[in-house]
Amino acid sequence: MTSDEPGRWTKSTVYADMWVDPADDPRETGVAYVDERTTLRDFLHRYRRTLELKCADLDAAQLASRSVPPSTMSLLGLVRHLAEVERGWFRRRLAGADAPYLYGPGEEAWDGASADPAVVADAWAAWRAEVDFAERLVDAAPDLGPTGPTGLPLRQVLVHMIEEYARHCGHADLLRERIDGRIGQ
Q1: Superkingdom of this entry's organism (predicted)?
Q2: Could you say which of 58, 83, 133, 139 would form a disulfide bridge with 126 (CB–CB 3.0 to 4.6 Å)?
């Protein structure tokens, strides 16, 4: 390591540029992809855990740190946004619940992402509650076909959620690198 390189910021003892050793990666479930439901569910699980990894070990100020003006994007904003997205697709569209917005229909998820530990705790609690609801809904569905009052196929929602998380985990990569130089994995 040269003097201008950051110190070791990883828990990995195998690869200095990884966050955790591959054997300890919380995204690895060991699930065999034997059917469509298992495959889609596990890919979504991996992206959800990636979001958590990208936010790990940061304080409220770091999580609320904005990318670059005029963007209001932050890691905390991503957590809040994805809680809202989970709620919209699984509770409202699939379950037909009359679930009010957590943060508002517009940019409130981003704008309200302030460097307050209570805001951080609320965001993670909301996100985890929505993920838990979604996982229970997926597990209870008899198949991946049409469900809920809209007749929307669960399959389509799962693929959309994978797409949503993939996009935002790319944003999270850049946001985290800007905060402390952590990249990859």
Answers
A1: Bacteria
A2: 83
Q: What is the pLDDT of residues 130-162, one digit of tens each?
A: 999 999 999 999 999 988 888 999 999 999 999
**Is 93 within 8 Å of 46 (Cβ atoms)?**
no
Q: Are 82 and 165 spatial neighbours (Cβ–Cβ below 8 Å)?
A: yes
Report how far residue 19's alpha carbon sits from residue 130's, in angstroms, rounded to the nearest whole number.
26
| Domain limits, the chain | 33-180
Number of DSSP helices (H) and strands (E) in the chain, helices first: 6, 2
CB of 175 closer than 8 Å to CB of 73? yes
Cα first-last separation, the chain? 20
Q: Is domain 33-180 given the CATH code 1.10.10.1150 in the classification? A: no
Q: 153-172 burial, b if ≥16 CB within 10 A, otherwise e?
A: bbbebbeebbebbeebbebb
The whole-angstrom separation of Cα 41 and Cα 88 is: 18
pLDDT in tens, 66-76: 988 788 999 99
Residues 6+ apart with CB under 8 A from 125: none
Distance CA 48, CA 127 (A): 10
Q: How does pLDDT run across 13-37, given as a tens digit for each residue?
A: 666 666 676 676 666 777 877 899 9
